User: What shape does this take?
Amino acid sequence: MTTTETEARSSVRSAAHKRTRVAKSSAGLGVRMRRNWQLYAMLALPLIWLAIFAYWPMYGVIIAFKDYNVVSGIWGSPWAGTKYFERFIESYQFWKLIKNTVFLHVYELVATFPLPILLALCLNTVRKKWFSRSAQLITYAPHFISTVVVVGLVVVLTNPNTGVANKFIGLFGFGPVDIMGDAGMFRHIYVWSGAWQTMGFAAIIYLAALTSVPPELHEAAIVDGASRLRRMWHIDLPAIVPVAVILLILNIGSILSVGFEKVLLMQNNLNLDTAEVIDTYVYKIGLASAVPQFSYATAIGLFRSVIGLVLLVLANTFARRFAKSSLW
Assistant: This one.
């Protein structure tokens, strides 16, 4: 067979493959669904959950613009325009809630965001696998403890009479301190108990990203005389920067949302000056009050969501421009 004939047959095969790909790509959605029905069946349940619990409740957002009452229903209630948004912005609680929510979230972000990264880098450099796996198991196990149990442990440990924290303080001659009733201590307890609970589990994401680092890079760095710390700084850390940037963007987008359940469980009449945040305030006026104010609570929640969306877009824009990594 001559070279010309071989080239001709190769061109015929490539043209046939190209036609096959074009035919597959031009197949209708129904044809593709019939061919890959197993994948679409697996996708159905998450989509149903998303539609029911994420998109369908958006229908109720309309009551933020109405004087809603249960008897008349959503469409039967009269329109109120932006009255409830103006009421929230002009209320004496507005700046207090914004300050408490933002300060608590920023404190949590600054204090806890680097910890999983440091833990993942340290675990990745440990040579003894049994020690690395044991440390990882111990650190991410608290993630599976419920928030109610964690708050219960905090309350027991900080009890003024029987708590371990006050027993330790008593060794230095100081009297019992009501730690949970101290408004200044609320943020510290919230943030660092959360760091203990979530640090290990969050490190799994970064450990997974570190597995993509080629071993040849470390071998070449060792040959060049690079120390373990330098290899961590110049090889491992750049590998997890894109993941860290994406998680940071998501955290910034939820700056007006904090752990509602944990904050509510840790609140008491003595620490409300720093413990009252937007989420708990919405719950109290919308559901827990003697006369529920559904429209007002919905307006506050919508206000929080819109601000979060704006911050998410801005954070993504800055990350794409400066860090070369973004969500979209």
Summary: The chain has a mean pLDDT of 84.
